[in-house]
Every structure is written in structure tokens, then in C-alpha cells.
User: Which sequence fits this backbone?
């Protein structure tokens, strides 16, 4: 009878335990073939903005040949091959962007992790909903040839203290020469819609402007 009671208690404990939220990994590969498209058009539950201007982040499809980038782990490169990314698509604030801000609608993340390529030290800062700094991390410049980096993208991670939650993160360097990839977080409510042909037509004008501007200021 005692063992039955123990088993029943265990079952009740398991039934009442809330499962840990599944992590969301954003690789941006769904934007392959959609270079220059704004990220916030296709994500819900999360907002990608330039910190001061509020403009959308955009996808950078390096297979277009318009970037100074290398793919990890294949090592394939385009342009000068300096900025490491995973596979073929990364994200950045664009040629007119500045420091990056990523906000979570539910303000309930306990961690944020990302890969990056940058020509100067890159900083990742986590804040709660009242703007209090919870954690910060930094990594060195990691260009493929200038910095003799053969190890691929760097990694940054911030964690909220126990019982607290991340509402948004800021990403910055010394001149907007960075891109990020493979953002992972446990924030809830994040969903993605693959860009549809109709949406591509609507975004075409903006993409043309981005390509013209990139010719003037390519990541270097």
C-alpha cells in the first residue's frame, strides 16, 4: 500500500510539472532567394529594429554575391570572404542601420544566444521590461582574413538572473559592421511565415534600393 502511495504521488508530481518551453532557433535560411527582405514582415512574437531609427532588420542572402562573407562550415566565400555566417543567410540592420534591437512580445526569455561576424568587438546586452540591464556579453572582431579567424562565427550569450526575464536585447559595435545568425532563445510566442510570392512583389522596390545602397557601402 505504501509503494502504491509513492507511485501515485510521483504521478501527480509529474502531471503537475510544467514542461520547459522549447527553444526557438532562427537561422534565417527561409529567406534564401529573398535578399534584402525585412525580417519583421515574416516574424511574429519578436521584433527586429535598428535601435535609434526603428527601421527593420533585413535578410542578407550571401549567394547573391553582394556581400563580403564566408559560409560556415563549408568555407565557401563571396566577395572578400571576411564575415562568417552559418550556411547562406544572416541578418543585419542594413547599410542605413545602426545598433540592433531585438524585442520579445511576451518579455519572457531567460536566455538569448547568437552567432556573429564583426570587424570590431561586438556587444550583446539583455534588458528587462523596465530597461534594467540584466546581463551582457562581448566578443572580439572575428573576420576571416583580417583577424586570421578560421573558426567560423563567434558566439555570444546572455542569461537572465533567476526569477527575471529578458524583454529585449541590444547589439552594437563601433560602426555597424556586423551581422548575426542562428539566434536561439526560449522566449515564447515566436512564429515564422515563409515569404510568399505576393509579398516578394511588394518588397521588390525596397530590395532594389537596398542593393543600390549596398554598392556604396558593402560590409568591409
Assistant:
Amino acid at each position: 500500500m505504501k509503494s502504491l502511495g509513492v507511485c501515485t504521488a510521483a504521478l501527480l508530481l509529474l502531471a503537475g510539472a510544467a514542461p520547459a518551453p522549447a527553444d526557438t532557433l532562427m537561422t534565417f535560411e527561409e529567406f534564401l532567394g529573398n535578399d534584402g527582405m525585412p525580417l519583421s514582415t515574416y516574424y511574429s512574437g519578436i521584433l527586429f529594429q535598428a535601435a535609434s531609427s526603428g527601421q527593420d532588420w533585413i535578410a542578407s542572402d550571401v549567394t547573391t554575391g553582394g556581400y563580403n562573407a564566408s559560409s560556415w562550415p563549408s568555407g565557401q566565400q563571396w566577395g572578400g570572404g571576411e564575415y562568417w555566417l552559418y550556411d547562406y543567410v544572416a541578418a543585419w540592420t542594413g547599410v542605413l542601420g545602426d545598433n540592433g534591437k531585438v524585442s520579445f512580445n511576451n518579455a519572457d526569455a531567460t536566455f538569448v544566444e547568437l552567432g556573429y561576424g564583426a570587424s570590431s568587438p561586438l556587444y550583446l546586452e539583455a534588458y528587462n521590461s523596465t530597461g534594467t540591464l540584466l546581463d551582457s556579453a562581448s566578443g572580439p572582431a572575428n573576420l576571416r582574413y583580417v583577424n586570421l579567424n578560421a573558426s567560423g562565427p563567434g558566439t555570444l550569450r546572455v542569461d537572465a538572473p533567476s526569477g527575471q526575464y529578458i524583454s529585449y536585447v541590444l547589439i552594437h559595435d563601433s560602426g555597424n559592421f556586423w551581422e548575426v545568425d542562428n539566434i536561439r532563445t526560449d522566449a515564447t510566442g515566436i512564429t515564422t511565415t515563409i515569404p510568399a510570392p505576393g509579398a516578394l512583389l511588394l518588397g521588390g522596390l525596397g530590395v532594389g534600393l537596398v542593393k543600390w545602397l549596398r554598392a556604396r557601402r558593402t560590409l568591409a
Summary: DSSP finds two helices and 16 strands in the chain.
